[in-house]
Amino acid sequence: MQKLYKKSLLEGVALEPKLEELLAEGFTEIDGCYFLNSMLKKNTNVERDVFPDCTGFECFINSFYINDYVTRDVLEQGVLFLDEVISNWIKYSRRDLRCILIFADDLKLKMHVEREGENWLCEDLEVYDEPILCASSAGYQVDSTVRR
User: Fold this and answer.
1) Lowest mean pLDDT, pick from 28-37, 99-108, 135-144
2) In the chain, N or C: fewer CB atoms in 10 Å?
3) d(C-alpha 116, C-alpha 98), whole Å
4) Confidence at residue 5, expressed as pLDDT on a 0 to 100 scale
5) Using one digit for the tens of pLDDT, what is the confidence trace for 72-114?
6) Nearest to 88, CA basis, from 26, 33, 30
7) Buried b / exposed e across 71-104, counting CB within 10 Å, b at 16+?
8) Going by C-beta distance under 8 Å and a sequence separation of 6 or more, which residues neighbour residue 6?
9) How confident is the model at residue 28 (pLDDT cuts 50, 70, 90)?
10) Cα distances (angstroms) measured from residue 137 to each of 68, 84, 134
11) Is there a domain that residue 33 lies in?
12) What sign has the CA pseudo-torsion 14, 71, 64, 78?
């Protein structure tokens, strides 16, 4: 089903170069927390100890608006970026990564490593006013034929 959905939504849409650049620098681990290098460079004025856990710190650093990088096909670009993040993550680490797309006035992406006892979202996504899409690298099927 995931494959059919992505194909119908993303057919003929390629990831914008500005979003590709965010992934080009890869990931970094610092004190058990994982970051996209491109995001870490932008948010360097905050320290880990102001957050209750690594998940909160990662979601603060690994957070941006897709709309800041693209002007059209924002939802499609968000889903493509999420897919690329997970594809790259699977090559980087065996840990499970959760990517979150939040649909409000703009489309926001956040990501964190999945840890026992640490959650950024409630289990029941229905409590949120905004539509939210969560994807985990655990069992994720990357389909490279959809992207281009």
Assistant:
1) 135-144
2) N
3) 13
4) 52
5) 889 999 999 999 999 999 999 999 999 988 888 899 999 999 9
6) 26
7) eebbebbbbbbbbbbbbbbeeeeeebbbbbbbee
8) 79, 83, 143, 146
9) very high
10) 25, 11, 10
11) yes
12) negative
Q: Which residues contact 51 (CB under 8 A, 6 or more apart)?
A: 57, 60
Query: What pLDDT, on a 0 to 100 scale, did the predictor assign at position 130?
Result: 76
User: Per the domain annotation, does 120 fall within a domain?
Assistant: yes
Dist. CA 46–CA 48, nearest whole Å = 7
pLDDT for 111 equals 94
pLDDT band (50, 70, 90) for residue 143: low
pLDDT of 1 above 50? no
Rounded distance between C-alpha atoms, residue 133 and residue 87, angstroms: 17
Q: Is 11 a member of any domain?
A: no
φ, ψ for residue 6, nearest 5 deg:
-65, -40
What dihedral do alpha carbons 117, 66, 44, 100 form, nearest 10°? 0
**How many domains does the chain divide into?**
1
Residue range(s) defining the domain that contains residue 43? 2-6+16-147
Laid out side by side, the sheet with 63-65 consists of 63-65, 107-113, 97-103, 132-136
Whether 125 is covered by a domain: the verdict is yes
